[in-house]
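Handoff note, outgoing to incoming analyst
You'll be picking up this chain. Sequence as last confirmed:
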Amino acid sequence: MVFMQSYCEANSSISHTWVDEGISPCFYFTLVPTILLTISFLLGTIHCVFYQKYGTVMEPKFIPRSCLYGFQQAISALLLLQFLSLIVWRAASGGELPGYVVLYGCFSALGWAWAIALLRVERRRVLVMDRTRGHSTVLLLFWALAFSAENLAFVSWYSPHWWWGLENNQQQVLFALWLVRYIGTGLLFFIGLKAPGLPRKPYMLLINEDERDVENSGQSLLGRTEENQSTWQGFRKKIRLLVPYMWPQGKISLQVLVLFCLGLLGVERAINVFVPIYYKNIVNELTGGSSWNTVAATVSVYVMLKFLQGGGAGASGFVSNVRTFLWIRVQQFTDRVVQVRLFAHLHSLSLRWHLSRKTGEVLRSIDRGTSSINGLLSYIVFSIFPTIADIVIAIIYFITNFNAWFGLIVFICMVLYLTLTIIITEWRTKYRRDMNQQDNNAKAKAVDALLNFETVKYYNAENYEVSRFEDAILKYQVSEWKTQASLAFLNQTQNIIIGAGLLTGSLLCAYFVTEGKFQVGDYVLFGTYIIQLYTPLNWFGTYYRVIQRSFIDMENMFQLFEEEEEVKDDVNAGNLVYNQGKVEFENVYFSYTDGRRILQDVSFTVLPGQTVALVGPSGSGKSTIIRLLFRFYDVQGGCIRIDGQDISKVSQASLRAHIGVVPQDTVLFNDTIQNNIRYGRISASDQEVEEAAITADIHDKIMTFSEGYDTQVGERGLKLSGGEKQRVAIARTILKAPQIVLLDEATSALDTETERNIQASLAKACANRTTIVVAHRLSTIIGADQILVIREGQIAERGGHEELLLKGGLYADMWVKQLQAQDSDSSDTEAKDRKSEKLQPPSTSSGHHGH
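Most recent structure output, in case you need it:
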């Protein structure tokens, strides 16, 4: 009997489960930790044994980074510490320390320590054949029982042995510790359902997908985003990218505006507190029989405060309108800086990236990303932070001016509201992300079809393209329906929580008024304040959704920012010092993808003023040599030098300033012919543009157009013929007046007569300039100083035209085949001419037929 008295409190026994309208604390605090410790230790040990015996260590790249996982660990550690703190506090308070308190603290601390260990094991090891996702049943069961046990305390609401009365310091401390446990276990359980920090898919599936990704690398433009990945993934990294736009560097006037807007934000918080207080004073003064002067003064102050505040969160007041007006300049600065930086970044990316991009998808990502940044900053700074501040102020105000129950009601309501809002919104993320992907696909198909308008017409594929576009829209609308339906579910959940909190608080306040503890004005104050608080809180879900949607919309844009430049200037890269124009390729190796060499051990030298021609079959690597010299790519072995300087050690801008390129496929801007030619040297005069056009044999053709040099060339120059586009490109290069000229089949789109006319122009433009020509028609490079025959990425033959013919090798075979093809074309042309003469009707001058 002595043991029972020392284990339980005086006049209490563990055998009594129900005492004074509540559960016996001795029984409750013995049963709960025993069950929790048994579950965590017994089932947890089995769990760990299986993971050690049949599991494997996960590769770090498959373990997602998660702030919520760290939050889980922090909450678990806090709960463990509060159990130990309970024992220390009860021992230090000088009162009786029952045995069940020691058992409760020790058992619970051991149970939670084991739960933390399980959490860490699941983070690092995985059952390879496990087809489930998320936390194990052991952890979820432990958290669920721990949260249920804290809810069981509500059964003892009217018991004097529990802390609900808050009548002394001991009850207040116990209540505070229970509040920590209640919130902590609840958060752990609800967050645990999402299982942050753990892979979203079975481990073997992740490994297989990773292998496929390696095989298919480079096929996706914007990278793959895990479907169920939280939008808060990498939150710190995203915020770091946003900080420069939140604080305008080097703009003193804008920085002053930012600080002033933040000051107005603080003024709004103070006004929100005083509006309900003055409303309460008006009611009390009217019911209390105060003088007219007093009531009039109070009403005037109240109306002034309402004028400054506005009609709540939905209707802006004077202060809010002033802040919005002042923020316009900051918002414009942000929008401009984001778009300019992203545009510059895209131009710095490699040719490899631009060849694989989808223009419609990129433009859509830029459009959504830049517009979402402004919304994100505004909602975070002017909506989320103020709403949280209002909640904290309201809780403190109700606790100090009413009593702790009102603060608790507001606190629980807010926690439930915010927690469920976050959980449901995170669940909705996959639908929003999928909707964005379908939107991208629809826009990409539309843009692709419009850019290839002629091809669509050639093959009568209008109905096919319309059908594809309609299918893409239908897929988008399926995702859109899921997004809207889940939004409706979220709104209903929020309304239920808000209604329950308002009903509970209003009933309690009305009860105190009827008991004479509160005045009528206090009820009005509570109703006004709580509705004023719920209005922005009701918008909080919208704010959170907008912020989350902005993060989703910005993901593609962030991925564009994260695309690294493949060709970068060295930190100490200097300018290319041009002397004579000697070009050297020394043992150059290059491949576009691993495992397939394009160039192998290519070495040659182009002396100053010489012309070197590159010939060979398609795909042999001729154009690649041009691209490497222009430094669209960096070599993977060997070295390229100009006047003895390694081009990888000089700045790209200085290198390209000395090189002019006439590409095989000429693309013009949707502008005038004059501006397209002037692009070779922006500062050139109209006369210089015309002289370049004359040299390129395009001037006479331009003058036949009704608008002359002001003729619009259309999208990608489609209004001009292939030959006209190529001659514009040649004129553009002539205007640039480079020291080194690269001709990548520059006359491939020209007819024979025009080609002969322009050869002399090209020869004049390339005179005394180092020139490298990629040619398909061997007749155009007979006069080259050196001809290199490229086959399978290697130089198979080299020498002059006559020399290579005498060798009788690959070049000679190519020459003979081209001559035979020309003879065949000539024969076919003559035969057609003779046939057309036979089919031609007799002339009327030869006489009339007889009757």
